[in-house]
Amino acid sequence: MRILFITSNRLGDAVLSTGLLAHLVDRHPGARLTVACGPLPAPLFRAVPGLERLIAMPKRSFARHWIDLWLECVRIRWDLVVDLRNSAVGRLVPAKRRVFHARAPELHKVQEIGRVLGLSPPPDPRLWIDAAADAEADRLLPAGESAGFGPFLAIGPTANWTGKEWPAPRFAELAERITAAGGPLEGARVAVLAAGPERERARPLLDALGARAIDLTGRTDPLTAAACIRRAALYVGNDSGLMHIAAAAGTPTLGLFGPGFPETYGPWGQRARTVVSTVPRAELLARQKADPQASGLMDGIAVAVVEQAAKDLIGQAPRRLEQVVTKAR
Known about the structure:
Blueprint: E1 2-6, H1 11-16, H2 18-27, E2 32-37, E3 51-56, H3 64-73, E4 80-83, H4 88-92, E5 98-100, H5 109-114, E6 127-130, H6 131-140, H7 143-146, E7 153-156, H8 168-179, E8 190-192, H9 199-209, E9 213-215, H10 222-229, E10 234-238, H11 241-248, E11 253-257, H12 262-265, E12 272-276, H13 281-290, H14 303-314, E13 324-327
Parallel strand pairs: 1-2, 1-4, 2-3, 4-5, 6-13, 7-8, 7-10, 8-9, 10-11, 11-12
C-alpha cells in the first residue's frame, strides 16, 4: 500500500498532524509512506516507520513548489492520499482514495485533523525520535541531564511574532522561583531553546540566567529539540511550534497565551496546560491591529500564576511516554 501524506509547512501544525499519520502507520503496517511538508518540520518525519520518501517543499514564487510536488507524485498510483493542505496536488495525482482537510473553527486543531479520517476521539500527536537525534541531545546536554529524564527546566522564550512573547525578565524570575532552594526543581539548570533566527530575542533570558543556562538556541533541528525536551522535568513556553513538540514528547508542558487562541492551538496532551492572559483577547488583538509593533501584549500573565501552574504540573503523577517512540538506526 502506498500512502501520500501532505502536511503543513509550519512547525506547530505539522506536529499536530503527527497523530493522524501515526494512525495510518498503525492501521496499515508495511505501507510505504511519502510525506510532503515544509523544510522546517521535515526532520520530524525522517524516522516514521515505513517512510519511503520525505519531500521538503521550500516555497517558490507563483506556487511553483506545488508544481514540483505534483511532478514528484503524478507517476505513482496512490492507494490513499491524505491532503491536509487541501491542495490541487491531492486532487490531480492518481489515487484510489483521497481525503482532504476541512476547517472546523470550533474544534482544537488535533480534533479538526482527526475528522479528516472520521476519528473521534482523535489520535494524540506522536514523535518518532531516532538514534541520531538522541545522540545529538547527549552531546548538547551536560552529562547529568543527558543521563536520563533529568531534572532540568526547559524554556521556549520566543514565538513566531514578538506579540506572543512573555517578557524575558518574567521567564527569568519564574526560573529562579522554580529552581531556588525549596522550589520544585531545586538546583536545576535551565535549558533555553529557540530557532536560529530568534536567537537574539532569547539572549536577554540567557544573560539573566548566567551559568545556570544551557544554551540550545539555534543549535537543534526540530527532532533534536524533541530529544532534548523530552528529558526535561518541565517545559514552559509561548504559543509556538516548540510548545507543541514538548507536549507531543510527553514532557509536562505549560503554554502561555495572550493574543493567541488556546482553544484551537493549546498544547495537546494529558500533561499539557495553558495559562491565559487576564486581559481580554479582543482587547489585545485590537491593540495589535492598531499597532503591529505593539508591546506588552503578554503582560497580563503574572509570574505567580505561571509558577503555581508549573508546580501543579510537576506535582502530578509521573508522566506517560507512550506517545514518544525511539527508533534505533
